[in-house]
């Protein structure tokens, strides 16, 4: 730590779980001087988070660990909700490919393997230093509007560390949040459950359900999820006489598992009792300190979005911190973080609560009525609903008008450079330069680019076109011309009635335009909104 005691870091990160590690990687890739502190000296060896979505995988693609994760994850199976009579009342799946973000919309995964891959990626970044076994005991603001952290080393020595910004990713109990006096707002959900992770013997796997099931049984609501390899997870609602138990005896756990497993057919990997609750910060920033992940919000697992929401925090923050630290955009840019993420988290939580209300109903009469109403709403034929359609876009903050498709993740098609062989196809993020993108349905004429050039330079935006029609003449040399394999982007432009999209560095659509004149106006508004000057 001595190398940092007399310097001011760009960012100090408190907590080295998946969210803190992802943020450290994203900032380190941008060359930011980062230090990460975690009071634990090793990866937690047992599973906690269990599912990833396509936005999370896009983040891991950017960090460079998607390939390393392949052996430790599997596409998320369809989910059936079974009513009181054991028959389906809801059915969720992720639809056919091509997938809009280039990845399957959901996966189950092994969290210790993910954290190991993230830490290896961070270790390769020369501007990031990691201090395990170091506990941050205090955070204050100095007279330069920087943060001063008191950090206790394993031997007990306390050192001061200075940073222009601090991001607390220190979990649901977040000591940093408590020291800052930032209360969590209750979103009115609180239920006791036990989560049981099992390694099942290979000979037994085929006898278990092949897909995920929500058993909406009022006598004991239960969740079953298929994980990678031999990993299966069960979650059981605890009864009133069980709710205060910190641990459940193994013989009681085997009684819960008896409909599926006998003790000689599997081993308990982890069993943990939780209170599934829903909370969110009202204030996401206090001076130079921002909060992310479980320290900022927590939600029940019924949509498998807990960790995914924390990763959205990291992606949202990384580019904004980079722009502010570089001095290209004003410090007020960071205020948009909570403005964007707060309502989005609350909307996700509202959906999770709605699903939880279906699952957790304990009254047999109301449960039967629930089953009847859900089936009637679907014409008495349970229909497949897309899981990804349940996730909301950003609706406030750094958007042009706030209308759809703004705030949505921009698609990631499989592309290749114009004229390249099909074998050279790649995901678009691997071809595009990190940062703002101006993506055009068709190649622009040089005459169109000239009026945009100053604004594009101010935003440091790359121009990409899908297609080779310029209206005459060659494609300008500073335009990345791509062809796509499956027409995903062409359909997206047609669906939204536009010919261009300005995409933020976090892959969120900032605004769209119908023609060249609209592009110029869009770029002008973006520069003004982001506080960047242009020639």
Give a brief description.
The protein contains 14 helices and 27 strands.
If you had to describe this structure to a student in words, what would you say it looks like?
This protein is of the alpha/beta class and 535 residues long. Helices cover 30% and strands 28% of the residues. It contains 14 helices and 27 strands. The strands form 4 sheets. It has a 9-stranded mixed beta sheet, with helices on both faces. Strand 21 and strand 22 form a beta hairpin. The protein starts with 7 loop residues before the first strand and ends in a 5-residue tail after the last helix. The model has no long low-confidence stretch (mean pLDDT 94).
Using brief descriptors, characterize the structure shown.
27 strands; alpha/beta; 535 residues; 8-stranded mixed beta sheet; 9-stranded mixed beta sheet
Contiguous helical run count: 14
Strand order of the largest sheet: 19-16-12-15-14-13-5-6-20
Mean pLDDT: 94
> What fraction, in percent, of the residue positions are helical?
25-40%
Distance N to C terminus: 43 Å
Structural class: alpha/beta
